[in-house]
Amino acid sequence: LLQSGLHSRLAGLKTLLLNVSRAVTRDVLIAFSPKAGPSRLNTTEKGKASKIHLPKEIFQSLSSQTVSVVVTVLNIQQLGMFKEVNQRAQVLDNTVVGITVGESSISGLQDPVQLTFAHRQLPLGVTPQCVFWDPSKGQAGGWRSSGCVTQPGDKGTVCSCNHLTFFTLLLNPALDGSTAKALMDVATAGCGVAMAFSIFTIAFCIFIRCRFRFEETVRINLGLHINLMGSLLLLNLAFLLNGGLSGRTNPRTCRVLGGLTHYSLLCCFTWMALEGCQLYLLFVKVLGIYIHHYLAKLCLIGWGFPILMVGVAGVIGSYGEYSIQNMDHQVIAHLCWITSKHLLVHYITNCGYFGLIFLFNMAVFGVVTQKSCSLQGTGAVQGHRKPWKVVLVAAGLFCLLGATWALAFLTYGTSSLPVLYLFTILNSLQGIFIFIWLVVLYYPKTKETTGSLSYIIRHDKTTTASQ
């Protein structure tokens, strides 16, 4: 590989050759750089270049006394090799590293080979992934990650693999320009429809609240639904304003718009939590609990608590223009949101806050489902309900508690694109799902048990609990 004729033909090929004795009792460390020419290393080199750590387990399993460790560094852009069909990810520095020890194939290592790919801080929305080339994948070969563990860092990414072959570091973009535009178009259309159905749902709840004589518990539930739909209406409106004005507004207006969008999102999460609390009181704390001005106090929490979080975030200057970039640092979308310098605010107030709410609401959903099934089995629930209606009621309750927002935790990594579309579509249509659910539950009000998930019997009196 070190012959001068081969080097002249393959300008992108660099080879590091190291003779190692089988009796080696320590690990081997090799440093390489994609820009360096062919060289022969007799000792361990240290520096800012990328590094390869070979465990002594490799040499203990060899039968020969002396073996050659060959590290081949390829520039695939010059060679036109190692390109997967329909590959979206970018190879770091267009560099592929091949490692061979002796002439045998080495795999199943207990102590893995470690490759440290040095790089600068990666742009937002890019996920590094350690992969190796599998010639049997597809028709022309492709990248696989099985057997490799990725440990990303600010100055480099460590790849730990249990075999020797050709390796590289793929940079997987969460979004590219066309995907970002498509998602924005889907979200904008969905938000427009969701705003209309949010208005329909609020009007419907007000109508049946005034038209029919419901007990106080049901009236409180309807008031909760109205406020939740009001927060969804505000969120969709803020998103539409954000998509239409971001990138063309002055910094102060963008900060206000970013704070409004954040506030409306936190209001949605808070009202979903209050819906879960109300279900908990109905199904677990069944005994009559009277709280003076209960709905007014819920409104104070649902609309007031997010103001505190947004106020603290605004004081430290968290809001402004947020740019989504691709791997070439080209801006593909602008938003008025929490800036890149204050992502910790996003992780705490959005991811952490919703994570706690999601866990609580799913626990409540499990209790409600279990109690409903137990009452069905004991015959406490009167009347027969069609299976499709039961499924629809359960799905509506699932949306009411904000379960679809949990998809945001799956929008990270190489498989995030389908989840991004699913997350955008489902949450844009959340208002429609809740509207259909409320119509099925509350109207028309008949003697048949169409208005609840289950009934809780106390003092020989049936009480509609889930309305």
UniProtKB/TrEMBL annotation:
GO terms for cellular component: plasma membrane. Keywords: Cell membrane, Disulfide bond, G-protein coupled receptor, Glycoprotein, Membrane, Receptor, Signal, Transducer, Transmembrane, Transmembrane helix. The chain crosses the membrane at residues 186-208, 220-241, 261-283, 295-319, 347-369, 390-413, 419-443. Its main location: membrane. The keyword Membrane applies. One of its GO terms (molecular function) is G protein-coupled receptor activity. InterPro entries: GAIN_B, GAIN_dom_sf, GPCR_2-like_7TM, GPCR_2_secretin-like, GPR1/GPR3/GPR5, GPS. Residues 187-442 form the G-protein coupled receptors family 2 profile domain. It is a multi-pass membrane protein. It is found in: Cell membrane. The keyword Glycoprotein applies. Residues 30-177 form the GAIN-B domain. GO terms for biological process: adenylate cyclase-activating G protein-coupled receptor signaling pathway; cell surface receptor signaling pathway. This is AGRG3 protein. The lineage of its organism: Eukaryota, Metazoa, Chordata, Craniata, Vertebrata.
